[in-house]
Specification:
Helix content: 55-70%
Radius of gyration: 54 Å
Number of strands: 0
Order of helices and strands: HHHHHHHH
Number of helices: 8
Length: 238
């Protein structure tokens, strides 16, 4: 019975040894191979003692399975967490981009509105701060000094230098300047000269009417005489 108890505790690797041990135990009882019973029994015990017990294997294997399962679960959770984080980041970026686009649009609209208001204010200031062309006495001829004095009275002070520079380039302050190769005429070299009739019927003979038309043209097209001069410098015309 002693030998039989030992068999239940040996490892899988020791099954052959267990069989030999059992035979040895029987031989010890029956007297078969009585001379080697002690030696064989001792060898079997020694072999069994150095091996992993059968009772230990299921527990160890279960631990490995559990560990592998937990590792797999952790990996799956990590992958899912990464995917969720990536999705959240993309959604956050999309929302931020939408907010930025709306903010830029609002800023552009605000800048456009402010520019329009400045332009309107400039026009209003020009109208209120200048004399009307009809307030100048009509003469048969005008000197350059007289024409420039008219311009100073009609054109806002902060815009006069730009206005004067354009007139210098276009006609040298000759209100009767007539371009022989085109229909350009007058101080501003309006093309055709008859365009200035919108400022007065005397556009061909009255420099004040020409100045009034020229100022209106520069304000409407370029925002101001200085805006017109900036364009002139880049393109050699306005």
């Amino acid at each position: 019975m002693l030998e039989g108890n030992r068999v239940s505790r040996i490892s899988v690797r020791g099954f052959a040894v267990a069989s030999a041990t059992a035979v040895t135990a029987v031989g010890a009882v029956t007297g078969v191979a009585s001379g080697s019973t002690a030696s064989s029994s001792d060898d079997a015990e020694a072999t069994a003692a150095g091996a992993t017990l059968l009772a230990d294997i299921p527990a160890g294997a279960q631990a490995q399975v559990q560990t592998a399962s937990l590792t797999q679960q952790a990996d799956s959770q990590a992958i899912a967490a990464d995917a969720t984080a990536k999705k959240d980041a993309e959604e956050s970026a999309r929302k931020q981009a939408a907010k930025d686009a709306v903010a830029k649009q609002k800023a552009a609209e605000k800048a456009e509105q402010e520019a329009k208001e400045r332009k309107d204010a400039l026009k209003a200031a020009s109208r209120s701060a200048t004399r009307d062309a009809s307030s100048f006495p009509t003469k048969s001829s005008y000197s350059v000094a007289e024409i420039q004095a008219m311009a100073r009275s009609i054109v806002p002070a902060d815009q006069f230098q730009c206005f004067s520079t354009i007139v210098d380039h276009e006609s040298s302050w000759n209100y009767q300047a007539d371009n022989p190769t085109s229909d350009a005429y007058g101080l501003m070299q309006a093309l055709p000269g008859s365009k200035m009739s919108s400022a007065g019927a005397d556009w061909a003979t009255n420099p004040a009417t020409q100045i009034k038309w020229g100022l209106g043209y520069m304000n409407d097209r370029y925002g101001s005489p200085c805006g017109a001069w900036d364009f002139w410098q880049a393109n050699n015309y306005y």
